[in-house]
Amino acid sequence: MRAHLRTGGVAETVIDDAVLILSELLSNACKHGRPLGDAFSGDGDVRAAWRVDAGGRLTVEVTDGGGPTRPAPATPSVTAHGGRGLNIITALADDWGVRDDVRGEVTVWVVVHDDVHDPDAGHRRHDFAARVAAPPVSAMAGLDFANAFDDLD
């Protein structure tokens, strides 16, 4: 994402925000959403996409198979280990929301910034987009969680 946005002439500070937002969205999708497709757990996908439209607005989206709750900012305690992701996104972004589709997929979208182009970048593309999907866990070599907790007492 970082390299793709740089190539498009997006300002570095906006790229930093977009990468953090994408990380938060992916974390939430993995924690709270079901995988896309027919997998119940483990081997399903989530989709990430980002685009800069002709007006210079950067939008980041993550799609999963939905979950038991709707994405909403939380009010975690001071000592809580989580629950701040959507509050971070709200602070960094111009807008965000949730979109459902007929297949049960849920997309959380974020307008990172309304005018992302860096006037000092020396190059500017007027619009571009990317979409990525993670490979299934079963296709990732070296991921074996069978013995992950053997050393814990």
From TrEMBL:
UniProtKB keywords: Kinase, Serine/threonine-protein kinase, Transferase
InterPro entries with a match to the protein in the record: Anti-sigma-factor_SerPK (IPR050267), HATPase_C_sf (IPR036890), HATPase_dom (IPR003594)
Residue ranges that the Swiss-Prot or TrEMBL entry lists as coiled coil: none
A Pfam family: HATPase_c_2
Domain Histidine kinase/HSP90-like ATPase as annotated: residue spans: 2-106
Origin: domain of life: Bacteria
GO molecular function, a single term: protein serine/threonine kinase activity
PANTHER family noted in UniProt: ANTI-SIGMA-F FACTOR RSBW (PTHR35526:SF3), ANTI-SIGMA-F FACTOR RSBW-RELATED (PTHR35526)
Name of the protein this chain belongs to: Regulator
Naturally occurring in which organism (per UniProt): Streptomyces zinciresistens K42
Classification of source organism: Bacteria, Bacillati, Actinomycetota, Actinomycetes, Kitasatosporales
